[in-house]
Amino acid sequence: MSLPSARTESFLWLAQRISAMVLAVCVTVHIATMIIAVQGGLSAAEIISRVGGSRLWLGFYLVFVTAVAIHAPIGLKSVLREMTALPMRRIELLVGLFAIVIAALGLRAAFGLYGLGGQ
Amino acid sequence: MQTDQISVSIWRGGEDGKYQTYRVPRLESQTVLDVVTYIQRELDPSLSYRFACRVGVCGSCAMTVNGKARWTCRTHVSRVADGGAITLAPLRNLPVVKDLVVDMAVFFDKWEKALGSFVGDQTRDQALAAVSPADPRRREASAGIECIGCGICYATCDVVDWNKDYLGPAAMNRAWTLINDARDVARLPRLQAIAGDNGCLGCHSQQGCVERCPKSLNPTVAIAGLKRESMKAALKGELS
Amino acid sequence: MARVHRNHPAYWAFVIHRLSGLGLAAFLPVHLYVLGLALSDSTAFADFISWSNTPALKALETLLVVFLSAHLSGGLRLLALEFLDWRNWQKTLVALSGGFSLCIGLVFLLYAY
Lengths: 119, 240, 113
What we know:
The complex is a heterotrimer.
Chain A: H1 6-37, H2 44-51, H3 55-83, H4 88-116
Helix pairs in contact in A: 1-3, 3-4
Chain B: E1 5-12, E2 18-25, H1 32-43, E3 62-65, E4 68-71, H2 77-80, E5 85-89, E6 96-98, E7 101-102, H3 105-113, H4 136-144, H5 152-156, H6 158-162, H7 169-179, H8 187-194, H9 208-212, H10 219-235
Parallel strand pairs in B: 1-5
Antiparallel strand pairs in B: 1-2, 3-4, 3-5, 6-7
Helix pairs in contact in B: 3-7, 4-7, 7-8, 7-10, 8-10
Chain C: H1 9-40, H2 42-51, H3 55-83, H4 90-112
Helix pairs in contact in C: 1-2, 1-3, 3-4
């Protein structure tokens, strides 16, 4: 089985860096929200009152989830390649599955929470 | 720290060798290479090691001294002797031939793989190329040009350790000087050679190479430059 | 002895980036799954929140916040290193990013409880 081409690896690298730039913004917002929102304890009511029905938050979380689902699996690919003896095919399969799981769970949560509010 | 003697543990044998300890008289201004030479001449003539110039020009006496790759000729015992003891091993990441001698073939093969030699298209009959020393590309090239190929960066790099096909800092530093050489005509094949995870994208900027380079070069800067250039080539559809 | 070549600031920055990345990648599916619980089963979600209110889990939560801010600042450091012209201010960047993530951790501890 041949390795991915230099071109494919280059595009994956670039995707990881671009998603990193997007995440830099998202994570800053996320940390700020966390520090503000968690005051007095995290609750479903707090999350739903903030995120529910808000297109702005929905848009934010859609971007956030997409960027994470791109960023994390590519990083994981490097780690698995360097730190385990798994063949490249297996690694690609694993991180591909990981990307799908993150995207599915993330999109479900983002759309679901949006749908809970908005009266 | 003037003890009369130093205890020197030296790797003996091939890949499956072991350390052997020698006691060597402590002298003023003694280098680690002096110590190895003393052992080979006075205590154990079967000890194999490599050196040539003794003054930091040739780069052939690099070894692992107390866990760090160093030129032994430019390393004073006083700087490294840990309680009067020194441990010497061959360079990491390269096959051991015997004792302190490693096989440098892979290291230089990777220079070739990275297209680490100049490719020109001019002949001696043509005028000399005019390159201003102030030109930014020339400065970039000049910053990395002093590499003498001692292998210290290669031996220090963990990515080399983790990925046997990774080209390593020296080869890519060399490729970067050539990419910035206005006279060189092999830009694209060279970018193709250093692109991807076995080339510049494998670098995690751990900067052990920068930390240890005896010439104070900065291969991480060179590799970052290669990342940007190979990315531009990939976006233009020039890479395969 | 065999590992002393790793003992310098940029290497430690790499170790922290890798560990925090792995920690976050492991936590992410749990995080998103629990958020999903808030939709389908709000009692299960509330149970989880109260279960996570122990000192040990609060400490783990703070660790994850530090991981996130460390991965953020370390990642910005890497982006600067790879995309900007630089030479000699690397150690300053390592120090800045380390300081930033510790600050975030402290602020989180102060304000979140």
